[in-house]
Amino acid sequence: EVQLVQSGAEVKKPGESLTISCKTSGYTFSSFWISWVRQMPGKGLEWMGRINPSDSFTNYSPSFQGHVTISADKSSTTAYLQWSSLKTSDTAIYYCARNLDYYFGMDVWGQGTTVAVSS
Amino acid sequence: QSALTQPPSASGSPGQSVTISCTGTTSDVGGYNFVSWYQQYPGKAPRLMIYEVSKRPSGVPDRFSGSKSGNTASLTVSGLQAEDEADYYCGSYAGSSTFYVFGTGTKVTVL
Questions:
Q1: pLDDT along chain A (119 residues), means of 10
Q2: Per-residue pLDDT averaged across B8-21, rounded?
Q3: Interatomic CA distance for residues A116 and A40, integer angstroms
Q4: Do B52 and A105 touch (CB under 8 A)?
Q5: Does the distance separating the beta carbons of B101 and A106 come in below 8 Å?
Q6: What sign results for the dihedral spanned by CA atoms A22, B100, B65, B104?
Q7: Chain A residues closer than 8 Å to B7 by CB
Q8: Rounded distance, CA B61 to CA B109, Å?
Q9: Is B36's CB within 8 Å of A35's CB?
Q10: What is the pLDDT of residue B27?
Q11: A119 near A31, Cβ under 8 Å?
Q12: B73 and B22 in contact (C-beta within 8 Å)?
């Protein structure tokens, strides 16, 4: 069974750094891109960026470029989303999702990680 | 990189059909046959319902169908059931600078 299991909820202060994870299993990790998607409270879905685990090549939405970093570790079949300096506006649920192919279609999703940033 | 435009809400009675539109531009929906649709229940992760405009992943009921004309894609749910009450989002490949864009989302209510 293909599964994406995300790390637990986080409560952080503005300016702090954070890395959340997405542990995959049940398929060949290097064969599928992994995307990250943000959902702010009561709002819609926003695509943030993705990584090709085979070579760690990344694409970012212009809206998120420079604000987050996406990485992957083939040895642990895990993808990561990282912030170096959180803002209160980063408060949201973050989902990882496997892409069917280069042109997207996200077929398997993690359960989501809630990030709360408050002073 | 504006979001694709969807109606905020749609509704229908059990057994009826409901169609949700998703309007973009020639840079996304109109330029590629890579439109997807996702269903999301409150507090849950999204689920892929349609990809590449009209293909259904395994396990998705054939009551769900997708189509596209020009810059507008559509999701039709036929034979509405109570369990279809959820939020629905479209998404489209948007080229090699924007990459991907979601729609604004539509809340479907089964009356």
A1: 98 98 98 98 97 96 96 98 98 97 92 98
A2: 97
A3: 10
A4: yes
A5: no
A6: positive
A7: none
A8: 18
A9: no
A10: 96
A11: no
A12: yes
Q: To 5 degrees, how large is the angle CA B81–CA B93–CA B66?
A: 30
Q: C-alpha dihedral over A62, B52, B104, A17, to 10 degrees?
A: -40
**Two structure tokens written together for A48:** 């943030």
Contacting residues of B for A63, CB less than 8 Å apart: 1
Q: Please say whether the beta carbons of B74 and B21 come within 8 A.
A: yes
B103 contacts in chain A (CB < 8 Å): 44
Write down the pLDDT at residue A103. Answer: 85
Q: Cβ contacts of residue A20 below 8 Å, gap of 6+? A: A6, A7, A10, A80, A81, A82, A94, A113, A115
Of B47, B51, B99, the CB nearest to A59: B99
User: Phi first, then psi: what are they for B29, rounded to 5°?
Assistant: -55, -50
User: CA A10 from chain center: how many Å?
Assistant: 14
Joined together, the tokens standing for residue B73 give: 């894609």
